[in-house]
Structures are given as structure tokens and as C-alpha cells.
Design goal:
Blueprint: H1 2-26, E1 32-34, H2 37-45, E2 51-55, E3 58-62, E4 68-72, H3 79-85, E5 89-93, H4 100-124, E6 143-145, H5 161-175, H6 177-182, E7 190-194, H7 201-212, E8 216-220, H8 221-224, H9 231-245, E9 249-254, H10 257-260, H11 271-286, E10 294-300, E11 318-321, H12 327-337, H13 349-354, H14 361-378, H15 385-397, H16 408-427, E12 434-438, E13 448-451, H17 462-483, H18 491-506, H19 535-562, H20 564-577, E14 579-581, H21 582-593
Parallel strand pairs: 1-4, 2-5, 7-10, 7-11, 8-9, 9-10
Antiparallel strand pairs: 2-3, 3-4, 6-8, 12-13, 12-14
Helix pairs in contact: 1-4, 5-7, 9-11, 12-14, 14-15, 16-17, 16-20, 17-18, 17-19, 18-19, 20-21
The protein binds adenosine-5'-diphosphate and zinc ion (ZN).
């Protein structure tokens, strides 16, 4: 419906503009050559003219070849008598006067247009997050979930036990507020959930409301920041008013960094509006009384850029980290989402959890859902390990693109490229084991080498990172060795190499020459300034980064030239089978090394 109105308004505007343009153009359609009054009189005297038209103070006529002339009659002239005497036919025209109504209407058109544009803009904007209640402009636009409707419970959130414990306390408070206030405990007004996207922050907030049986208002921070100054602030005011009226309740503000970014941090446009909104938010939070029984839960994945004022006591003074799940957590999340799906006996969730390092809860949920879809499509009646593996690849790298047209030559290059990655990783002790290599295109990648860590890693040592650099470069180097040519296919690898190498030198203090100091680059978009360094240091850093990459390059090249025969074998197998796994690579390597 919204789009219908938007389209309608656009067509109306186009029609009006066309109408205006048309009426303007219609006027001077006929071109008159203006001549001097004397010349006109000459023509009259010489009998060249036979008929003229008089309109106001101009006389016009046309000649035989259809050219139109006109002349202006001086005031107090006796032109009329003169013309009559000469026997010229005179036609008098009255000036066309538009009806007064039309005239007023025309003069109002620009203003009407403006009002119309404004009106439809207002209708169209800011609706994104809601969808629930239709609300007037300037209202909070929060989306309300009734306590009866909210079915999310803490049991639905898995693998984030610490966060759940903190949350459980808030649920207790909402259920029995008196118990807390009688004991003189200070109740948190704001809880900030921070962590990577898809780790279950929204889910946790919903679970609080669901467990406590209170209404849940949700709004996204980006909904506050509109292009019109003052609207964000009024929306905040409205939201809190609504919250207080419906207390006890949860107000959930997603993406709080959209409003709560460090003030005066530069940023791009709309700063006044954002600051006003943020100030209003702070004012409202300060105005909370303990017995308001409204708890604000906010979520962000950029807690580092939030304005410190937001985190002060009485505001979001409780901060709960919602981390990416570890192996155990992933297993629990997988099980939660597989509750209503038929699972085959061969499925071992522990193995699947091990094979999905770095996956967020949302990705795991997505994977289980994908598996159920694949199962249905394949006409099977339960999800097997094989289906899960397929679903994992899909979530990780996008759908297979079997229909993508790839030339034989491209395929060959890809096979060697991926073999390059795999073989370097294989030969370097301390790298993650190679799990699978494929040359079936997925998403934007032509091929893929997948490594799986044996155990969960929370930090990486220098050797591991260096091995990563070597492995990443292996693809490009294999192309160079075999085809003596470079392709764009390695672009992504190279970008990652640069990124890791620079971080090793500038952030993790892993270069001996630079030493254990950080030199973070600036982040102008979020108002984080870069660290100040001398020109000499900058040069040193560049030199160190380059050195590091060069050493990785040499190491990888050495491996691939030494084991050229193994590289050929793996590439050939890959071209035949398109996908090979750990055991198959192991077999090939063992054949060569006896
Ligand atoms: P965030 O708000 O942190 O970006 P969401 O809460 O929106 O993440 O997560 C999206 C979906 O992913 C959830 O609706 C849920 O299905 C799934 N999910 C994410 N984290 C978890 C978790 N810890 N336990 C169970 N499901 C999860
Ligand atoms: Zn590559």
C-alpha cells in the first residue's frame, strides 16, 4: 500500500510539472518580427497592408508568405484614424484574461506541490522496522509484541550461558519488582548487549520479555535518525512515554550505534539530528524512576564507538557480552534448532559443531533450516550428515553455481590455484588441517579450500598467522609456476594477505623492528582517529609489512616447487572429481612420499 501511495505521488508530481511546462510553452508559439512604428506607417501609406489585428497597444499582421509582424503603437498616436482612412480592415482582440479561480489556483501550485512532496516523504520514510502498528508521523514507530504473543523463552537461546545468567536476574526483577526494591537494590534501567551480528542479542531481549510476560517494544536505532531534524528526538520521547504507560515492559533498541555513536565524531551528515536524538535518549533515561519498571535493552556490534555518556551509571550501566558460540555452544544451538526436524541416526552434532568454527547462532540456525530444505528437495525423510555438510557449504559460501559457464582453461587454473592453497597448508606444520578442496563455483568464488581447526582457537600465534599468509599466497604462486601468468582470481587472497600482515605489524606487535606498539589506522566513518606516528615509523611499518609478505611468498613458493609432482597429481584429481577431501589428499601425498 505504501508503495502504491509513493508511486501515485510521483505520477501526480510528474503530471503537474508537465502541465506547467506545457502552459508555459504554449504562450509564445507564434514568432513576431517587431518593426519600428515609422516603418509600419510607411507600409500603410504604400498600401502594402490590407488587414491588421489590434490587441492592447500592439498592431500585428501577416504577409503573404505567412511571416508575422508587429509594432507597438506609441501612446497618443492617431494610428486608428489613419488606418481607417486608408481602408484597412481592423480586427480588435481583447487580451485573454484567465478566470480568477484558475489564476489563484496556478499561483498556489508550487506550494501545493511542496506540501504534497513533504507529505508523501513522511509517509514513506521510517516505516522499515515496524510493520506492526500504523503510527502517525513523529510517533515512535516502535514495534510492539504483546506478552501473550511473545513465545521466546530463555531455553530457546543456547550457548551463551554467561549472558543468560545476567539476563535471568532482570527477568526476576520484572516478575517481582517489589522484592528488589524492598531490599534496596538498584534496578538497572539499561542493559547493553554487545557482540557480533547474529549471536542472539535480539533473541535474548525477546526472551526477557517472554519469560517475564511483559510487552516488548522493539525499534532500530536507524529508525530514529531520519533526515529531518527534531523527529528522532520526538520519537524517543514518544517511545518512552508509551513504555511508561505500559510498564512493566521491555524497550529494545537494536543497532543503538546508529544514534549512540560518539558525539562530535565527524561521521557523515545528519549529525545535528543524531546528537539531538542521542541527547533526548540520555535525558529520558535519566528521568527514569526505579518504580517505572521499564527496562531498556540495547544491542550493538560496535560497542567501541558508543558515546561514553551512554554507558554511565543510571544509563546502560549493565553491559553484557554476547560472544560467538564455542564448540559446546554451537552444539547446543544446533540441537535447539533441530528440535522440530527429523534427524537421521548418523548425525553426530559434536562433529558438526567442530566443523563450524566461527559460525554465529544465526548461521547455525540458517544451516539447519537449509538442511531441512535440502532434505525435502531430495525427497528424503530425515536430515543426514551428508545433507548437513551440503547445508554448511551453502551457508558458508553461497549456493553452488553449477550452471556457471567456465572454460576448460579457467577450470584448470582454478584447480591449480586451489591445490596451491591446499598443498602449502598441508606442508606447513601448525596450520589448520585441510578439510576439503573444491572447484565447484559457489557464490562469487570459482573454487574453495577449506581448512578446519582441530581445536577452538581464541588467539593465534605468530607462526600460525605466518602460515596463513603462506597458504593464502599459495594459490597465486601455483598459477605463476604452472601458467607463468597472473589472474584476478587471487584478488581476495591478496587483500587478506595485506590485511593480516599489516595487522601483525601494526596491531599485534609482531614485528621485531617496529616492536610491541600499536599503530591503528584511522576509522573516519566512526570518528576513530588514527594513531599519530612519525614519517620514519610509517616507512618502517611499510618495510616490515612488505618483508613479512615477501618471506611468506618465498616459503610458499619453495614448498610448491619442491613438491611440484604432488601439486600436479592433486590438480588432476581435482579436475576429475571437482571436490576432494582430507583423506584423498593424504593418499596422494603418501604415494609420493612413500
Ligand atoms: P543479533 O540480534 O545478535 O544480530 P538475532 O538474535 O537476531 O541476532 O539472531 C537471529 C537468529 O539466529 C535468531 O532468531 C535465532 O534463530 C538464531 N540464533 C542466534 N543466536 C542464537 C542462540 N544463541 N541460540 C539459539 N538461536 C540463536
Ligand atoms: Zn585463492
Amino acid at each position: 500500500m505504501k508503495y502504491f501511495y509513493k508511486n501515485l505521488s510521483i505520477w501526480l508530481i510528474i503530471a503537474l510539472i508537465a502541465f506547467l511546462a506545457f502552459s508555459l510553452l504554449k504562450g509564445p508559439a507564434k514568432v513576431y518580427h517587431t518593426i519600428a512604428y515609422n516603418d509600419f506607417l510607411d507600409k500603410v501609406d504604400n498600401g502594402i497592408l490590407s488587414a491588421v489585428t489590434i490587441k492592447e497597444n500592439t498592431i500585428s499582421w501577416s504577409t503573404a508568405d505567412n511571416t508575422s509582424y508587429q509594432t507597438i503603437i506609441p501612446k497618443e498616436s492617431t494610428a486608428l484614424d489613419h488606418l481607417l482612412k486608408k481602408g484597412i480592415r481592423i480586427q480588435v482582440k481583447e487580451e485573454m484574461k484567465p478566470h480568477w479561480f484558475l489564476k489563484t489556483f496556478l499561483s498556489w501550485i508550487p506550494i501545493l506541490l511542496l506540501i504534497l512532496v513533504w507529505f508523501f516523504f513522511m509517509r514513506g520514510s521510517g516505516q522499515a522496522g515496524g510493520g506492526g502498528k500504523a503510527m502517525a508521523f513523529g510517533k515512535s514507530r516502535a514495534h510492539l509484541v504483546d506478552p501473550e504473543q511473545s513465545k521466546v523463552r530463555l531455553a530457546d537461546v543456547a550457548g551463551v550461558d554467561e549472558a543468560k545468567e545476567e539476563i535471568a536476574e532482570i527477568v526476576d526483577f520484572l516478575k517481582q519488582p517489589d522484592k528488589f526494591t524492598d531490599a534496596g537494590a538498584r534496578i538497572p534501567t539499561g542493559v547493553l548487549l554487545y557482540g557480533e551480528p547474529g549471536t542472539g542479542k535480539t533473541l535474548l531481549a525477546k526472551a526477557i520479555a517472554g519469560e517475564a510476560g511483559v510487552p516488548f517494544y522493539s525499534i532500530s536505532g536507524s529508525n530514529f535518525v531520519e533526515m529531518y531534524v527534531g523527529i528522532g528526538a520526538s520519537r524517543v520521547r514518544d517511545l518512552f512515554k508509551e513504555g511508561k504507560q505500559n510498564a512493566p515492559c521491555i524497550i529494545f533498541i537494536d543497532e543503538i550505534d546508529a544514534v549512540g555513536r560518539h558525539r562530535s565524531s565527524g561521521g557523515v551528515g545528519g549529525n545535528d539530528e543524531r546528537e539531538q536524538t542521542l541527547n533526548q535518549l540520555l535525558v529520558e533515561m535519566d528521568g527514569f524512576e526505579a518504580n517505572d519498571h521499564v527496562i531498556i535493552v540495547a544491542a550493538t556490534n560496535r560497542q567501541d564507538i558508543l558515546d561514553p555518556a551512554l554507558l554511565r551509571p543510571g544509563r546502560f550501566d549493565r553491559q553484557v557480552m554476547v560472544p560467538l558460540p564455542d564448540v559446546g555452544g554451537r552444539e547446543k544451538i544446533l540441537k535447539v534448532h533441530a528440535r522440530n526436524i527429523k534427524i537421521a541416526d548418523d548425525v553426530d552434532w559434536t562433529i558438526t559443531a567442530k566443523g563450524t568454527p566461527g559460525f554465529s547462532g544465526a548461521q547455525l540456525a540458517n544451516m539447519v533450516n537449509e538442511a531441512a530444505l535440502l532434505m525435502t528437495r531430495a525427497g528424503k525423510d530425515s536430515v543426514t550428515m551428508e545433507i548437513l555438510e551440503e547445508a554448511k557449504d551453502k551457508v558458508m559460501m553461497g549456493a553452488e553455481r553449477k550452471s556457471m559457464i567456465i572454460t576448460e582453461h579457467e577450470k584448470k587454473i582454478t584447480a591449480y590455484h586451489e591445490t596451491g592453497h591446499a598443498l602449502v597448508a598441508w606442508m606447513l606444520p601448525g596450520s589448520d588441517p585441510v578439510h576439503k578442496v573444491t572447484i565447484i563455483p559457489r557464490g562469487r568464488a570459482l573454487g574453495m579450500t577449506m581448512q578446519l581447526p582441530q581445536e577452538e582457537r581464541n588467539s593465534h600465534d605468530r607462526t600460525y598467522l605466518f602460515n596463513n599468509l603462506c597458504t593464502l599466497l599459495g594459490g597465486r604462486i601455483a598459477e605463476e609456476i604452472v601458467f607463468n601468468e597472473m589472474t584476478t582470481g587471487a584478488g581476495n587472497d591478496i587483500a587478506r594477505v595485506s590485511d593480516i600482515a599489516r595487522k601483525m605489524v601494526c596491531e599485534w606487535g609482531m614485528s621485531d623492528a617496529v616492536g610491541p606498539m600499536t599503530f591503528k589506522p584511522s576509522d573516519p566513518l566512526n570518528g576513530v582517529p588514527g594513531q599519530i606516528m612519525s614519517e620514519k615509523t610509517a616507512l618502517l611499518i611499510d618495510h616490515e609489512v612488505k618483508q613479512l609478505v615477501q618471506r611468506a611468498y618465498d616459503t610458499a613458493k619453495d614448498i610448491l616447487t619442491t613438491h611440484r609432482d604432488i601439486m600436479e597429481d592433486i590438480s588432476q584429481t581435482l579436475l576429475e572429481k571437482e571436490t576432494i577431501n582430507h583423506d584423498e589428499i593424504k593418499q596422494i601425498v603418501q604415494q609420493h612420499q612413500g
